[in-house]
Amino acid sequence: MKIRKAIGPDLNNLLEVERLAFGNVEGPQIVELVQGLLIDPTAAPILSLIAEHHDRVIGHILFTKARIALNEQIPAAILAPLAVVPDAQGQGVGGQLIREGLRLLSEAGVKLVFLLGHPDYYPRYGFKTAGLLGFEPPYRIPDEHANAWMVQELGPGFLGSINGKVLCADALNQPEYWCE
Ligand SMILES: CC(C)(COP(=O)(O)OP(=O)(O)OC[C@H]1O[C@@H](n2cnc3c(N)ncnc32)[C@H](O)[C@@H]1OP(=O)(O)O)[C@@H](O)C(=O)NCCC(=O)NCCS
Of 5, 15, 130, 180, which cross-links 151 as Cys (Cβ 3.0–4.6 Å)? Predict the structure, then answer.
């Protein structure tokens, strides 16, 4: 399996991955989100990676720009969404996309990465509950899902020393994307 940055001609294939991974109910909304983020100037810089197996795109991960209110000089990103086609799930593809994404973001100088996702899945890749560390999500998350809002630092010295409300790209800044 190969992981590489997505380029223009990959668009239809990566949208198909989103559609298949998220299914008929959530899929159309996620496809719309990805399409919106890819052309949203407030989402830049973006990092869009695909996983390929025998020339078939089987996974996609997207990171877009985040800002921390009153700490806007700190480079930050949000992971959303991550998708692996159903027949390739459970084989580590998602994990490899996360790790490679974090490696490239770190190289690019990003210091903090946020996400709203499954609290049983992302901690194994280093994510921690962000609310407890003083980071407020763009939209309020119900208390019972508070641990789905997570953060990871890519360099030492940020967690515990800064906090604030996290602001996301316009295309992601819709309440429907913030109800875990
Ligand atoms: C979530 C997803 C990206 C994981 O990709 P993957 O390639 O299957 O993940 P990996 O192989 O790296 O890891 C598999 C592990 O994740 C766990 N996992 C998968 N989906 C999970 C979920 N929704 N909640 C908790 N754990 C989950 C599996 O149980 C498995 O655990 P194990 O290693 O203990 O057996 C993939 O299942 C997917 O695309 N799901 C549909 C879309 C989605 O929910 N995206 C995430 C949005 S936050």
Answer: 130
Express each pLDDT in 44-87 by its tens digit: 999 999 999 999 999 999 999 999 999 999 999 999 999 999 99
Closest C-alpha to ligand 1, atom 43: 83
pLDDT of 180 > 80? The answer is no
With the most atoms of ligand 1 within 8 angstroms of its CB, the residue from 16, 61, 78, 84 to mutate is 84
Domains of the chain: 2-178 (3.40.630.30)
Secondary structure of the chain in HEC code, one letter for each residue? CEEEECCHHHHHHHHHHHHHHHHHHHHHHHHHHHHHHHCCHHHCCCEEEEEEECCEEEEEEEEEEEEECCCCCCCEEEEEEEEECHHHCCCCHHHHHHHHHHHHHHHCCCCEEEEECCCCCHHHHCCEECHHHCEECCCCCCHHHHHHEEEEECCCCCECCECEEEEECHHHCCHHHHCC
Determine the residue of 26, 61, 85, 89 to mutate for testing ligand 1's pocket, defined as the one with the most ligand atoms within 8 A of the Cβ atom: 89
